[in-house]
């Protein structure tokens, strides 16, 4: 009898405790919006799966935005969010945008309308909503181990160093210009190979966090400046200024040279904006496919430019042909004809220069459209809206014309005709080709690294 009573009270106590615990437990719904073509979404997916698998009181709702478009739009409207980038995570009323394995500080971005997402802060937000710590299972141990590795894996950087040292024993055999070009091309190839080997052996979290620490303005400046060292634009500007040098008038050189450069900047701005708006539309819908196509295009253009370093004027090229250069030379000659004589019409020369700038930029689009393709993939993944697009593109175009302005000021200062030599043209081709090849391969194999912090 006594045992039965004790057993009854034990069962009753367990029921009461269990009911109280169930009542005290606070269930949490977390909404994770992602895109199948988004590399950062793929990285965050593991964290969200670990949270929902190891914590019964947390339910993570996974929604692919193309398949749950109405729900996605409703969430954005309910939280007054105009930026539609992913991954977007809703933990209660707290919203995170983007994702990085590293990073601790809780940082709010007014432009992106949310806190910058990282593993630590997303977990903390879930724990705050629950009122107790959460478990990540084996995922937390793996992420922590990956973050601690990578210090002894920089051996690929020895490849270009060893290749550079080979110049000492080979310098006698590299006396000819052709052999020097082959050696320099090999050095560029060794450097690109070393970078990709480094990206392959380093833990992904280390590589990604390093890329996200690179300031975006620095990236845009670098891409635009590399784009500005463009043999096509250089050639036409040099032709125009060479003809102007015979007028013996610095004012005319400065005015018409500035007019040509300003026209090039405006035309390039309009072209890149059209490319960004059109590319952004397709990237949003067919992100990974478009990224692969653009990556293949940029890589192919890079290989063509590198080919021109070794075999200039042989086979297909992105540069201006001799026929096109002759055509531009004749147009520039008509512009400057008679400027040095009394009664010359400077206004007509300015108008002719503007028309020349428009014509040149339309012809050379195949020469200049490559690096802007890299720029647009980073821009549309980071920003949303016409004001952001136009602001960054204006900055891009200002940097783009810096080399042209340097050429103009040099002409005005030295006041003599100078031509772009073949060797200078080859080096410009090699530099541009190396940039294109590197970023083209990134777009194909490591698109997640094109997200700068």
Number of strands: 6
Number of domains: 3
Q: Which strand order spans the largest sheet, edge to edge or round the barrel? A: 2-1-3-4-6-5
What Rg do the Cα atoms give? Answer: 30 Å
Q: Low-confidence parts, pLDDT < 50 over ≥5 residues? A: 16-23, 145-151
Strand fraction:
5-15%
- Biggest beta-sheet profile: 6 strands, mixed
Helix-strand topology string: HEHEHEEEEHHHHHHHHHHHHHHHH
What is the typical, i.e. mean, pLDDT?
75
Distance between the termini: 72 Å
The helix tally amounts to 19
Secondary structure class reads: mainly alpha
From the spread of the alpha carbons, the general shape counts as: globular
Q: Percent of residues in helical segments?
A: 55-70%
InterPro entries: Thioredoxin-like_sf (IPR036249)
Signal peptide: 1-22
Transmembrane segments: 154-170, 182-202, 214-241, 253-283, 289-306, 346-373, 393-415, 427-445
Keywords: Membrane, Signal, Transmembrane, Transmembrane helix
Quick description:
By secondary structure, the chain is mainly alpha-helical. It has 19 helices and six strands.
